From TrEMBL:
Signal peptide: none annotated. The chain crosses the membrane at residues 54-74, 86-107, 113-132, 190-210, 230-260, 272-294, 300-318. PANTHER family: FE(3+) DICITRATE TRANSPORT SYSTEM PERMEASE PROTEIN FECC-RELATED, FERRIC ENTEROBACTIN TRANSPORT SYSTEM PERMEASE PROTEIN. GO terms for biological process: siderophore-iron import into cell. Its main location: membrane. This is Iron ABC transporter permease. GO terms for cellular component: plasma membrane. Keywords: Cell membrane, Membrane, Transmembrane, Transmembrane helix, Transport. GO terms for molecular function: transmembrane transporter activity. CDD domains: TM_ABC_iron-siderophores_like.
Length: 326
């Protein structure tokens, strides 16, 4: 049953990819999409598809995979259903590091500032975990620590942009999360990091299952807790850092999808991770397509759409879990 559901999810992803290529300021008929993909002859629609729509769609897929898997791994590591890279400040840390590299160090290429994104994501992950109480952290304390870190970091990002008009021009869409400037060079730059992060996440699926039952039980089952936590944090850092460097901080994808997936698959991480890897790009690309439709001929950036959709989901999750303890 779960295998059939996963196959259906892959079919939905393929349909969303086709919609992402077809829909935009200039709609492209399905026949022209096929021609542009497989029989490129240099027409206007062929160029539009090959140089703009396909890179945007491919980047949306790999970034969606990265955000969904990082959210699922983070929730499993912390045993916290509110854990999510955007909510816990990881994306904000990567964004602050990238803005600093661009404004103060003159770094302008993705291959240059992706390393700063990794550093920022890793540092903020550790800081939020410590502020939230480390191993004694409750979901709400972690959420509050992440919210405080996010507010402080985005205040810093906004201040730097206001003081540096050139940085503001370069980053005004990036800081809200956008796929609008995607190209294949960006895809090639971040894909190796995301592939490594995906492999690490899938390798620790079984020990993450053991950790769900508590540290003592996990040790009794032969899980190596420190190694699993280290691999998990490396995976989250690679996935979030690469995704944020590529298209800016996009929130709530890593919260919503793993939460919904658990209702379909149960608590087994061996199924949660593949489902999250498929359904997260569905949500991300779907939000991107929606943003192009509601504000046509302009567009609403995907980070804004996911925040508008994810806010009510987050409120519902908090109320349902009745997490009132601090």
């Amino acid at each position: 049953m779960r295998a059939a559901g996963l196959l259906a999810a892959v079919g939905v992803l393929l349909l969303i990819c086709v919609a992402s290529i077809m829909i935009g300021a200039k709609p492209v008929p399905l026949g022209d999409v096929w021609h542009g993909l497989f029989h490129n002859s240099g027409t206007g629609n062929d160029v539009l598809i090959q140089e703009l729509r396909v890179p945007r769609t491919v980047l949306g897929v790999i970034v969606g995979v990265a955000l969904g898997l990082s959210g699922a791994v983070m929730q499993a590591l912390t045993r916290n259903p509110l854990a999510e890279p955007g909510l816990l400040g990881v994306n904000a840390g990567a964004a602050a590091a990238v803005v600093s590299a661009i404004s103060f160090l003159g770094v302008t290429s993705l291959s240059g500032y992706v390393w700063f994104a990794f550093l920022g994501a890793a540092v903020v992950s550790v800081v939020v975990y410590v502020l939230g109480g480390s191993r004694s952290a409750t979901p709400v304390r972690l959420a509050l620590a992440g919210t405080a870190a996010t507010a402080a970091l985005y205040g810093y990002v906004n201040a730097v942009q206001l003081l540096d008009s050139a940085a503001l021009d370069r980053l005004r869409f990036w800081t809200v999360g956008s796929l609008a400037n995607a190209d294949m060079a960006t895809v090639r730059s971040v894909t190796p990091f995301i592939v490594v992060g995906v492999v690490l996440a899938l390798l620790i699926a079984r020990p993450l299952n053991a950790m769900e039952m508590g540290d003592d039980t996990a040790r009794a089952l032969g899980a190596h807790l420190n190694r699993t936590r280290a691999m998990g944090m490396v995976s989250v850092t690679l996935l979030c850092g690469a995704a944020t460097a590529a298209c800016g901080p996009i929130v709530f994808i890593g919260l919503m999808v793993p939460y919904l997936v658990r209702a379909l698959t149960g608590p087994d991480m061996r199924w949660i991770l593949p489902y999250a890897a498929v359904l997260s790009p569905v949500l991300l690309l779907g939000s991107d397509v929606l943003g192009r439709v509601v504000a046509r001929p302009s567009e609403l950036q995907v980070g804004i759409v996911t925040a508008l959709v994810g806010g009510p989901v987050f409120i519902h999750l908090v109320r349902r879990k009745r997490m009132a303890q601090l």
